[in-house]
Amino acid sequence: MNKQKFQVRPLPPAGILAVTLGTGASIAGSLAFLAGGLVLAAVCAFLIGSGALLYYLFIEGRSSVIPGTPLVEVLPDDAPIPADRIDALTGLANENGLYAWFSEKGARLAADGKGIVVLSADLADFEQVERSRGKEIAEAVLKEVAKRVASCTGSDGIAARTSGDEFAAVATVVPAHSSEVAAEQAGKLAEMLQRPVELPTGVVWIGGSVGAASGSPLEGAAVLERAREALKKAKRLGRGHYVVDNSQKPWQINLRWE
């Protein structure tokens, strides 16, 4: 089965014209019909308007409509990943790329009976590392952390750097085991964040906290938000803790890795 790539884009002028004409003609036809005017004219106006709209959206093949999302452009299978989806420093997805992944993969994963586990991680006192060791060392630390985060995604997941020192990892999972996998992966990442980063210039000790949540791939953005809320709780507990949230049966695991 061919996989489609989508890129969120604004509606171009031609699309605006088609939507405007289609909508206007449809409304005019409906009003004429309600007013008891020429039924045939009303029907024709409705068909013309609907036809123009459907032609632009579907027959021309330039865009696809997904309920609840903006219009998205279908990209060829071999199209390169747009630069605005990639974090230039680490090579991971950025936040835009992560949300695009949710939009593109959610329906297929759901159809395959898969769920997702989302990890949200944040480094502790990273600003201090940057101030005391310099930008070059700080960037080297971020690159190493990116590798550790990426190791939690499995073969068909995604890792992202969503802000300065905040990362996210998404792994697919059988829904019946999502809670166990979320706890296991959150603990694994929390432990890895406590490991020092060995660089040619010396060792840098880092740390961090992790929040995790699981849910439907059709609700990726909402699952990410719950993982971030769990991360906030973990950070309040201190460096090295992780918190797992499950919307079906809320529970937490708070564990400190030394």
Account of the protein in words:
- With about 260 residues, this protein is of the alpha+beta class.
- It has two domains: about 5-75; about 85-245, 2-Layer Sandwich (Alpha-Beta Plaits), CATH 3.30.70.270.
- The protein has seven helices and ten strands.
- It has helices at about 15-35, 40-60, 95-110, 125-135, 135-150, 180-195, 220-235, and strands at about 5-10, 65, 70-75, 115-125, 160, 165-175, 195-200, 200-205, 210-215, 240-245.
- The strands form three sheets. The protein has a five-stranded mixed sheet, with helices on both faces. A three-stranded antiparallel sheet has the order 1-3-2.
- α1 (about 15-35) runs antiparallel to α2 and α4 (about 125-135) runs antiparallel to α5 (about 135-150).
- The longest helix is centred in the first third of the chain and has 22 residues, at about 15-35.
- The radius of gyration is 24 Å and the shape is globular.
- Sequence stretches where pLDDT stays below 50 over 5 or more residues: 1-10, 53-75, 249-254
CATH class of the largest domain: Alpha Beta
Separation of the first and last Cα atoms: 46 Å
Strand order of the largest sheet: 5-6-4-9-10
Mean pLDDT: 79
Quick one: biggest sheet? 5 strands, mixed
Category from helices, strands and their pairing:
alpha+beta
Oligomer: single chain
What's the topology here?
Elements: E1 5-8, H1 13-34, H2 39-59, E2 63-64, E3 72-75, H3 95-111, E4 115-123, H4 126-133, H5 135-150, E5 158-161, E6 166-173, H6 178-193, E7 197-199, E8 202-204, E9 208-215, H7 220-237, E10 242-246
Parallel strand pairs: 9-10
Antiparallel strand pairs: 1-3, 2-3, 4-6, 4-9, 5-6, 7-8
Helix pairs in contact: 1-2, 4-5
